[in-house]
Specification:
Layout (H helix, E strand, L loop, with lengths): L1 E5 L3 H14 L3 E5 L11 E3 L2 H7 L4 E4 L6 H10 L3 E5 L6 H13 L4 E4 L6 H8 L7 E8 L18 H17 L7 E7 L2 E11 L2 E8 L5 E8 L2 E6 L10 E5 L2 E5 L4 H15 L3 H18 L3
Parallel strand pairs: 1-2, 1-4, 2-3, 4-5, 5-6, 7-10
Antiparallel strand pairs: 7-11, 8-9, 9-10, 11-12, 12-13, 13-14
Helix pairs in contact: 3-4, 4-8, 6-8
Length: about 300
């Protein structure tokens, strides 16, 4: 299967490309405004629009700055291409719903590359949770100050902690809450017109969720769950170290796992879904996630 990458982002170069070269699961094309000398790609373009219109690929992966996600997802869908896009899908729930509608009407796959759950470590961790029991969930992700030129520092490019990290929050609510919610508390801190720190809390009789996300802090990310007498701690939840053994802690016992690239596992799953033409689950997941985003937007 051919895949066209729109953009040559840092995350693509560091976390996806090296492993695609090893696995060789796709025939890869790329569109980049910077010259690409790598012979790994079967076709190279210097214009995004031309690439989308002339590619032989059925699948397009949009890996651009946040503010361009909607534009090039829509252009790709209108050319009858299946689409994957780096998180966030778009910057507004209204635009998410629009893209989902186009994808469904044309029987096309649309997927946001929020991949932290696509590995054996997470699946085992998740299987140990008893959702019928009282549950307390803590989700945390902070990163150090970014380089001044990083697009996440600019409002016009879709920057800020909320735009960059809200997909983690939303997917955790979807995975760990499993039902509609209306009452929640949201806090945020704004600097230079950007939300660089935010948190969301849900409290109910047998359930509590607390998610905290921030820029300009020490690098740390984890999921912590107290589930009746069950204690689970999942370090490096959203960005596991490349090529290093990882673990989670279950009642003071460490469970170790060999490195597994979640991006590649995600892409293999996408390839299988396209082959089998089974897109309903992604429509459903994206719709639920977008409804959650819509509720948060009203307070953010």
């Amino acid at each position: 299967m051919n895949i066209l990458f729109i953009g040559n982002s840092e995350i693509f170069r560091r976390k996806i490309l090296p492993f695609l070269k090893k696995k060789k699961i796709f025939n890869c094309e790329i569109a980049s405004k910077k010259k690409i000398n790598d012979n790994f790609f079967s076709r190279k373009y210097d214009n995004y629009d031309y690439a989308i219109k002339n590619t032989k690929a059925k699948l397009v992966y949009v890996s651009l700055i946040n503010s361009l996600h909607y534009k090039f997802c829509k252009k790709s869908l209108m050319q009858k291409k299946h689409v994957i896009v780096d998180k966030p899908l778009t910057l507004k729930s209204k635009k998410n719903f629009e893209l989902i509608k186009i994808a469904k009407e044309n029987n096309l796959l649309l997927a946001e590359a929020s991949v932290f759950s696509f590995n054996k470590r997470f699946k085992k961790f998740y299987s140990l949770i008893d959702f019928d029991k009282k549950i307390k969930i803590e989700v945390f992700f902070s990163i150090p100050q970014l380089d001044k030129k990083n697009f996440r520092n600019f409002k016009s490019k879709g920057g800020g902690c909320y735009n960059d990290m809200s997909s983690y929050l939303i997917n955790c609510i979807y995975l760990f809450y499993k039902k509609e919610f209306n009452n929640f508390n949201l806090k945020k801190k704004i600097k230079d017109q950007l939300i660089n720190n935010f948190s969301l809390t849900i409290k109910e009789k047998n359930y509590s969720f607390n998610g905290k996300f921030s820029f300009n802090s020490k690098y740390k990310n984890y999921i912590k769950i107290i589930n009746n007498n069950n204690k689970l701690f999942y370090p490096m939840a959203f960005s596991q170290p490349l090529n290093k053994e990882t673990f989670f802690i279950h009642n003071n016992t460490k469970n170790y796992y060999k490195f597994e690239n979640s991006f590649i596992s995600f892409l293999i799953n996408i390839k299988r879904l396209i082959k089998n033409k089974k897109y309903f689950a992604h429509y459903k997941n994206l719709t639920i996630a977008t409804r959650i985003r819509e509720k948060i937007e009203k307070k953010i």
